[in-house]
Amino acid sequence: MENSVTQDGIATVLSNQSLDSSSVRPDIVVQVVDLKPVGNRYTFSANDGKMKMKAMLPATLTSDIISGKIQNLGLIRLLDYTINDIPGKSEEKYMLITKCEAVASALESEIKAEIKASTGITLKPKQEFVAKSASQIINEQRGNAAPAARMAMTRRVHPLVSLNPYQGSWTIKVRVTNKGVMRTYKNARGEGCVFNVELTDEEGTQIQATMFNAAARKFYDRFEMGKVYYISRGSLKLANKQFKTVQNDYEMTLNENSEVEEASNEEMFTPDIKFNFVPIDELGTYVNQKDLIDVIGVVQSVSPTMSIRRKNDNEMIPKRDITLADESKKTVVVSLWNDLATGIGQELLDMADNHPVIAIKSLKVGDFQGVSLSTISRSNVVINPDSPEATKLKSWYDAEGKETSMSAIGSGMSSSANNGSRSMYSDRVFLSHITSNPSLGEEKPVFFSTRAYISFIKPDQTMWYRACKTCNKKVTEGMDSGYWCEGCQKKDEECSLRYIMAVKVSDSTGETWFSAFNDEAEKIIGCTADELNNLKSEEGEVNEFQTKLKEATWSSHLFRISVSQQEYNSEKRQRITVRGVSPIDFAAETRLLLQDISKKKTSQ
Question: Could you report the per-residue pLDDT of 68-86, keeping only the tens digit for each?
Answer without folding.
Answer: 888 888 899 988 887 877 6
